[in-house]
Amino acid sequence: MGVREISVEGKNLEIHELENVCDTLTGRVLTGSWIWDSALILSQWIITTAQSPSQPEFDLTGKTVLELGAGAAGLPGLTAAMLGASRVVLTDIEPLIPGLCRNVEANNLGHVVHVRKLLWGTDESLGEFDVVLMSDVFFDPDQMGALANTLKSACGERTRIWAATEIRPWTGDCLTALADQGFGVVELSGPVSVDLTGPGPEQRCGSFAVFSLVKQSDAGHVPPAFYDIWG
Ligand SMILES: C[S@@+](CC[C@H](N)C(=O)[O-])C[C@H]1O[C@@H](n2cnc3c(N)ncnc32)[C@H](O)[C@@H]1O
């Protein structure tokens, strides 16, 4: 916990993680209090792809960006702002909003980045975005219906949805639940190289992937193209 410095485009993002922020109902520490490895993966992935001249579709310059389940850090969204996005909205549940605001202020990105409370499936007034980012939100298949409803309200036909996740036993069920809601799911190529060494001495490991989700015009089942890139 504490403050982490993450390099984006030769500049450092200063990210404050939270301590002891608990769910008032369960008493459990909120999972969005700290940066998950998937956020580091997604941040690095958008830096790499946004700079690829052969893939202009990943250029974030002038794009509007929504991050869902941003936690208190909002690292992928803040990275998008550093890469030239014109407007970024970071969202999560209410107890994490002060942490998000603090990280926007710490990086002087308030002119581009806005913070908004959002429980999936409860607000259809977000408007449409060019890009939606998500990291480590595929943890409960039962939550995917609400997530899909939010995605449907924030996405038009041209919206790109990029999601990084650690591959866990239930990840496939989450992706299948989103496919059942009418989203095409495609794994984007190539493992992402990122330093997953945390602030402590421990080395972490795991399998991660970045997926593109595509809102289908006709709802129906779309089988997810899902496999473990490091398997
Ligand atoms: C594992 S954390 C990942 C946080 C951050 N994206 C990262 O990768 O560091 C999952 C996040 O999803 C958020 N989340 C879970 N269910 C949600 C819901 N129904 N509506 C809004 N956010 C939700 C949590 O509050 C938490 O911040």
Task: Briefly characterize the structure.
This protein is α/β, with parallel strands linked by helices. The chain is built from five helices and nine strands. The site of S-adenosylmethionine has 22 residues, from helix 1.
How are the SSEs placed, and which strands pair?
Layout: E1 3-8, E2 11-16, H1 37-50, E3 64-68, H2 75-82, E4 87-92, H3 97-106, E5 113-117, E6 129-135, H4 144-154, E7 155-166, H5 171-180, E8 183-187, E9 208-215
Parallel strand pairs: 3-4, 3-6, 4-5, 6-7
Antiparallel strand pairs: 1-2, 7-9, 8-9
Helix pairs in contact: 1-2, 4-5
This protein binds S-adenosylmethionine.
Instruction: Please describe the biggest sheet, giving its number of strands, its sense, and whether it closes into a barrel.
Output: 7 strands, mixed
CATH topology: Rossmann fold
Q: Low-confidence parts lasting 5 or more residues at pLDDT below 50?
A: 226-231
Helix content: 10-25%
Report the structural category. Answer: alpha/beta
Radius of gyration equals 16 Å
How many domain regions? 1
Shape summary: globular
β-strand amount: 25-35%
Strand sequence of the main sheet, in spatial order? 5-4-3-6-7-9-8
Number of helices: 5
Mean of the pLDDT scores?
A: 88
Assembly status? single chain
Return the CATH class.
Alpha Beta
| N to C succession of SSEs | EEHEHEHEEHEHEE
The CA-CA distance between the termini, in Å, is: 30 Å
CATH homolog superfamily: Vaccinia Virus protein VP39
Describe the structure.
There is one protein chain. With 231 residues, this protein is of the alpha/beta class. The protein has one domain (35-215): 3-Layer(aba) Sandwich (Rossmann fold), CATH 3.40.50.150. The chain contains five helices and nine strands; from the N terminus they run E-E-H-E-H-E-H-E-E-H-E-H-E-E. The strands form two sheets. Strands 5-4-3-6-7-9-8 form a seven-stranded mixed β-sheet, sandwiched between helices. It has a two-stranded antiparallel sheet with strand order 1-2. Helix 2 links the parallel strand 3 (64-68) and strand 4 (87-92). Helix 1 runs parallel beside helix 2 and helix 4 crosses helix 5 (171-180). The longest helix is centred in the first third of the chain and has 14 residues, at 37-50. The two termini are 30 Å apart. 40% of the residues are buried. Residues 226-231 have low confidence and may be disordered. Bound molecules: S-adenosylmethionine (SAM). Residues 30-32, 35-36, 38-39, 69-71, 73, 92-93, 96, 118-120, 135-137, 143, 146 line the site of S-adenosylmethionine.
